[in-house]
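Hi, does anyone understand the following?
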Amino acid sequence: MQHDKLLDLAMTLAARAGEAILAVRARGFATRNKQDDTPVTEADHAAEALITAGLRAATPEIAVVAEEEVAAGRITEPGQRFWLVDPLDGTREFARGRDDFAVCVGLVENGCAVLGAVGAPVAGTVYGGIVGKGAWRRDAAGMQPISARTEPEAGIVVVASRHYSDDPRLAPFLAGRHVADIVHMGSALKFCRVADGSADLYPRFGRTMEWDTAAAQAMLEAAGGRVLRLDGGELRYGKPGWENPGFICTGRR
């Protein structure tokens, strides 16, 4: 299956998972903590079941690595080509009644994120991109291209994690930069803000996992932005333990 068809599959499943998440929110749910002390809800499991079933049915030749399956001890051997799924990125925000949570479905080839879909369920929007081909936003109005911007003369807009809003590393990192605004929010939607040109910089110092970033990295890089480790190296996938180092997302240079 070609990349454009794989992206359509990922975006369609992200949208359907978003609908399932909103249905759970509408009827109410309980939250519990996993072994790593991160929260999980019925919505996480419902969205993941929908996405993984859809991916395995449509692309049985591509392995699927999904957050809740890994948490339950189901470890899939990824190989050179595999899907990375975060069915509900920003569970803390979701559990607290906020709207900045996302659905992430990304494809990795030879250690690189090559395409991804990031759903914003509350907005009814799905962002998608194929590295080297382009990025788009799909909503009720249809499919529109998106593009990261160069830093504006009026100053950059920084998006930063709400959960790490008091991180002492942020202020020194921004020292000397012309900052117009800092917006704290949750989930991979921060990548989307940089990708569609409404923000310019997203530094991440805290812990993330590969399923948190693969889809969003591919989408942002497809839009002309960049994602690099704090040491300037590439952020790659298939690492032991699935844990990412710190990284920086930027728009066009």
